[in-house]
Design goal:
The chain is of the alpha+beta class. It has one domain (24-140): NTF2-like, domain 1 (Nuclear Transport Factor 2, Chain: A). Helices cover 37% and strands 29% of the residues. It is built from six helices and six strands. It has helices spanning 2-17, 19-22, 33-48, 52-57, 67-75, 136-140; strands spanning 59-60, 79-81, 88-97, 100-111, 116-128, 131-135. Strands 1, 2, 3, 4, 5 and 6 form a six-stranded mixed beta sheet that branches. A hairpin with a 4-residue loop joins strand 4 and strand 5 (116-128). It is globular.
Length: 153
C-alpha cells in the first residue's frame, strides 16, 4: 500500500510540474512556455550568483546604461533575486511578436537582512540568436535604486 501511495504522489507531482513546458504560446511563434519560464529563471539566477557580465550579455541594451553602470547598479543593489520557490511565482507569458514575449511574474527579492519582498511586474524578453534576452530597463527596475527623472519647470 505504501508503494502505491508513493507512486501516486510521484505521478501527481509530475502532472503538476510538467504541463507548463508542453504548452505553446501560439502557432505563429511556437515557443514553449516552459522554455521561456526556464530562461527567465536563469536570468534571475545570473544576478543572484553575481554573474553580472554574463547577465549583461543577456540583456537588450537601451543605450542608457554602459556595461559598467549596469554591473555597478546590480552589484550595489540592496536586494537580489531570491532563491528557489520565492524567486518567481504566478508566471504568465504572452506573445508580443514572433520573436518577443511579455512575462508577467511575481518576483521575490531578497534583501540584505534576509527578508524577501515580492514585486509583480511585466518583463519584455526578446529572442536573439536562439537566446532569450531581457530588457535592461526591466531588470534594473528590480534593483530598488532606480534613478528618478527630475523635471525642470
Amino acid at each position: 500500500m505504501k508503494k502505491i501511495a508513493v507512486l501516486l504522489a510521484m505521478a501527481m507531482l509530475c502532472c503538476v510540474t510538467s504541463p507548463a513546458s508542453a504548452k505553446k504560446l501560439s502557432a505563429k511563434g511556437g515557443y514553449a512556455q516552459g522554455d521561456v519560464w526556464r530562461e527567465f529563471g536563469e536570468l534571475l539566477d545570473l544576478w543572484r550568483d553575481g554573474k553580472y557580465e554574463e547577465l549583461y550579455r543577456r540583456t537588450v541594451a537601451t543605450g542608457k546604461h554602459s556595461r559598467e553602470s549596469f554591473i555597478g547598479r546590480l552589484a550595489s543593489s540592496d536586494s537580489r533575486p531570491a532563491c528557489c520557490w520565492e524567486k518567481m511565482q504566478e508566471v504568465a507569458i504572452s506573445e508580443n511578436r514572433s520573436d518577443s514575449v511579455i512575462v508577467r511574474a511575481k518576483v521575490g527579492m531578497e534583501r540584505r537582512d534576509g527578508s524577501v519582498q515580492f514585486q509583480t511586474r511585466k518583463f519584455a524578453l526578446e529572442k536573439e540568436g536562439g537566446i532569450w534576452k531581457i530588457s535592461m530597463t526591466d531588470i534594473l527596475s528590480l534593483t530598488g535604486n532606480a534613478k528618478k527623472k527630475t523635471r525642470v519647470h
